[in-house]
Design a protein that fits this description.
There is one protein chain. By secondary structure, the chain is of the alpha/beta class. α2 links the parallel β6 and β7. α1 crosses α2. The relative contact order is 0.14. Bound molecules: 1-{4-[(3-aminopropyl)amino]butyl}guanidine. The site of 1-{4-[(3-aminopropyl)amino]butyl}guanidine has 16 residues, from β5 and α2.
Length: 276
């Protein structure tokens, strides 16, 4: 018998992968978690039925949520990640030469455990020098830390369940306050094809507090529509300007692509205009 896993990306569209094995399926305190082995993308982590990461395409998202900010801030020594319990973003952060300390604040310890058990290429970050894993509510954590971080990254799930508040103006304001005077915030802001309103919320909310607010794109095959957005809020440095070059290239990220990612299709420009 063939087994398939399907994420209903919209009420009218399913994304299905043939699976050879289910490694874990459980209800945690916060969400439903599963880890399956897909033939196409290798191991896949799903939360509440939504694909979070796969072995084969994780590099796109993790490089792009991290390296754009890290390579446009002149000295990102102290970095905070909210969410991202799989460790992929933390891996990118602790590998960056300027970073002295990368703090990951994840609300659900079962996500961290699933990464330890099944995603060694992501969870390798947990034990690297400078890495700290805190199991706590990121919303409270940013409230409790003022003027502390150079870069904050919000590697959240969709704005449902525990993540709703991570897309609110109040949260962005607390991030602003948790950043130093030249700090930068970057958040994952969903698909311009299917989540126009999320983009408007993230971009509009960040723009209220950060003098420089910009959106950029990357292709993530396993996420809804395959085209994914990230929004950066910056206090002083322009995130479109690359400070490092070839040394920081990855499998997806390059210094040319850094700049190209900010060049937006017309319909995406319109989402931003209409959201203002
Ligand atoms: N966080 C963003 C995943 C959003 C995917 N949405 C969906 N599948 N509907 C990814 C966490 C990776 N560290």
């Amino acid at each position: 018998m063939e087994l398939w896993v399907t994420e209903y990306q919209t009420p009218a569209l399913g994304f299905s992968c043939k699976i050879s094995e289910t490694l874990r399926t459980e209800q945690t305190k916060f969400q439903h978690l599963s880890v399956v082995v897909t033939e196409q993308f290798g191991r896949m982590l799903l939360l509440d039925g939504m694909v979070q990461t796969t072995e084969k395409d994780e590099f796109v998202y993790h490089e792009m949520i991290s390296r754009v900010a890290l390579n446009s801030h002149p000295n990102p020594e102290q970095v905070l990640i909210i969410g991202g319990g799989d460790g992929g973003s933390l891996r990118e952060v602790v590998r960056h030469p300027a970073v002295k300390r990368g703090v990951l604040v994840e609300i659900d310890d079962r996500v961290v455990q699933a990464a330890r058990d099944f995603f060694p290429d992501l969870s390798c970050s947990f034990t690297e020098p400078g890495a700290e894993v805190v199991i706590a509510d990121g919303i409270q954590y940013v409230k409790d830390h003022k003027n502390t971080f150079d870069v904050i990254m919000v590697d959240s799930t969709e704005p449902v369940g525990p993540a709703v508040e991570l897309f609110s103006p109040g949260f962005y304001q607390n991030c602003f306050n948790a950043l130093k005077d030249d700090g930068m915030l970057v958040v994952q802001s969903e698909s311009p094809f299917f989540n126009e309103n999320v983009i408007k919320m993230a971009y509009g909310g960040i723009k209220k507090f950060f003098p420089i607010t910009k959106l950029y794109l990357a292709s993530v095959p396993t996420y809804p529509s395959g085209l994914w957005s990230f929004t950066v809020g910056s206090k002083t440095h322009d995130p479109e300007t690359v400070k490092f070059t070839e040394a920081s290239s990855g499998r997806y990220y390059t210094s040319d692509l850094h700049q190209a990612a900010f060049k937006l299709p017309g319909f995406v420009q319109n989402i931003l205009k209409n959201g203002e």
